Amino acid sequence: MFSRISRGARAGLIVLLLLFSVMLPASAGLYTDSCGMVWTDAALPFERNNETAYTEELMASYGPIMANLTEAPDLSNMTWSDAFREACACMEERYAFTEWRGVDWDALYATYAQKIADAERSKDTAAYYRTLREFIFAIPDGHVLVLSPDDFGAKHADIGGGYGFAVARLDSGEVIVTYVASGSEAERAGIRFGDEVVSWNGRPIGEAINATPILWTPIKPSTAEGILLQKQRFLARAPVGTTTEIGIAGPTPRTVSLTATDDDYETLARTSIFLGRETNDGAAGSSAELKAMLTNETVTTRTLPGGIAYIAVYEESYDVYQPFRAAMETAIAGGAPGIVIDLRFNRGGDDNLAAAFAGWFVDRPVFYEYGTTYDPGTGEQAVLWESWSEPRPDRYEGPVALLVSPYTISSGEGLPKVFAETGAGAIVSWYGTNGAFGMESMGPVLPLGIMTAFPQGASLDELGRIQVDSNRSMIGGVAPTVRVPLDRDTLERAMAGEDVQLSYAVAWIEAQAGGEPAPTPKAAAGWVIPLAAIIGLVVWFGRR
Predict the structure, then answer these.
(1) Pairing between strand 339-342 and 309-313?
(2) In Å, what is the CA distance from 126 to each residue of 284, 289, 385, 502?
(3) Out of 171, 188, 251, 443, which residue is the most buried by the measure of CB atoms under 10 Å away?
């Protein structure tokens, strides 16, 4: 969705237009009675490779409500308490998923207002920022965020220490040790890979995991599955110097006492295997910082054994389409027996670009979404655009496997959504996608330079229903159709350096090429698609 647009030129143009409420002229035939723009083939703006013309179309989609648009309020000169009160009121008015996710704004304000006041009274910036994060993490939506140029030392104070080992919950329900740091106190205490952990500080391990806060993950999870994953990872993090008692099962059950030490977030780095590689997401403060750790490319390509093409896409910005197209044309010309599209770290961007990607794989026109946003003039959601994935005349017809993860968010969930609806290929993963697909916009600016963002619009299916975004039961995102088992074998292989999810994707492709019957079931699409609200959003992402 557009929530990930960060190109300066486009941001500047859009902000200027919004400030002056200028409505750009639209081409004949683009408007309907119900929305501002219709893209019957979402790939066309990218095929013609004219970003300026496309930006004009994006702005034209806002034509029906352009006169009503207002800037996000700047509350930075208010007291911390007054700014928090006004920010809550703004979010309550404009948040697109209050009913869908069952958000009780009055209860949230009552829960956190006193903590904000206490932090202000003591001038405790770390407590202030921590409380803001607690507030937004109480809303299970990866698009509800606070962004700050500084965490004021709160992050290291909370999770700067590690116990020298990490755990994961298997499909069987067992919680086992997956990593032990060399030379650590845990290693000296005899903890080894595969040990079953049954208690933590006297609490049953499941209860301890459920009670673990996850305020410092750089990609906020939106589903129960994603939240559980992060709770397992952050269980072994604590303030430096904290001592804990770990209960280990076995022929001779035992309890081990360990003290948290500063390890530069090593246990988080060593448990990021769901991304297919070791990445210190504990040290990252935002999706932009995490992207910089992973790659400086827009699209990564290589050829896998057997000639299978591998294409990794990290975001949906305008300049991604041409390298993606080139990668597809190379795979087709080379007769690739299959293609793996890696979206495990795709932080989103432009919904239309995700719809354009889908055109390379679908065999019929597929409705992608109605995009909505809040109209301040009416106080209601307005439908701004309609978009479709149209089959490419030179589309790929071989087997395609998508790799996803809980860090596949926003428009990154768009191609999986289409695959789930059409059965165009397999979706391979240990976990489903993030489940945050709404139209993210800039929210109020708070004291200390802290910015907010939240979805003011939703992505709707052809019947007008919310798609992909998780609901009040925290069910959402796009589920794998080929779910990689979480057992001792797969985790041991992953910790040894194998990209297990990729291995499963390749095996699935080879099964199709070998003529083995392996029908692809449709995935549960969760109930929401990522849409991007351009307004103010571009400003925020330009600063991320």
Answers:
(1) parallel
(2) 18, 21, 41, 40
(3) 443
How many other CB atoms sit within 10 Å of the CB of residue 258?
22
Do the Cβ atoms of 358 and 392 come closer than 8 Å? no
Question: Pairing mode, if any, of strands 366-375 and 339-342?
Answer: unpaired
389 contacts 366 by C-beta, under 8 angstroms: yes
Enter the tokens of residue 356: 């354009």
First to last CA, the chain: 16
- How far apart (Å, rounded) are the C-alpha atoms in residues 135 and 113? 10
| Cα 511 to Cα 399: distance, rounded to the nearest angstrom | 10
| CA distance linking residue 164 with residue 193, whole number of Å | 12
CA 154 to chain centre: 23
At residue 378, the pLDDT reads: 92
Amino acid making up residue 334: G
Exposed e or buried b for every residue in 342-353, given b needs 16+ CB within 10 A?
A: bbbbbbbbbbbb
To which H or E segment does residue 280 belong?
none
Looking up tokens 């013309």 gives 53
For every residue of 421-445, DSSP letters joined together read HH--SEEEESS------SEEEEEEE
Q: Are 381 and 372 in contact (CB under 8 A)?
A: yes
User: CB burial class (10 A; 0-12, 13-18, 19+) of residue 107?
Assistant: exposed
The segments of the chain whose pLDDT lies below 70 read 1-35, 515-544
- SS3 for 304? coil
Count of Cβ atoms closer than 10 Å to residue 314 Cβ: 26
> How high is the pLDDT of residue 516?
52
* Calpha distance 391→394 (Å, rounded): 8
Amino acid in the structure at residue 19: L
| 409: three-class secondary structure by DSSP | coil
Q: How far apart are CA 2 and CA 351, in angstroms?
A: 6
Q: Using CA atoms, how far apart are residues 300 and 341, in angstroms rounded to an integer?
A: 10
> Length of the chain in residues, anyone?
544
CB 46 within 8 A of CB 318: yes
Q: How far apart are CA 101 and CA 21, in angstroms?
A: 32
Q: How many angstroms from the chain centroid is the CA of residue 450?
A: 21
CB burial readout 454-487, b (16+ within 10 A) else e: bbbbbbbbeeeebbbbbbeebbbbbbbbbbbebe
Tokens 């428009």 found at: 411
Q: What is the pLDDT of residues 383-426, one digit of tens each?
A: 999 999 999 999 999 999 999 999 999 999 999 999 999 999 99
Q: Which two tokens stand for residue 161?
A: 């220490």
Task: Supply the pLDDT for residue 285.
Answer: 87
Compute the half-sphere exposure of residue 126: CA atoms within 13 Å on the CB side of its CA. 7
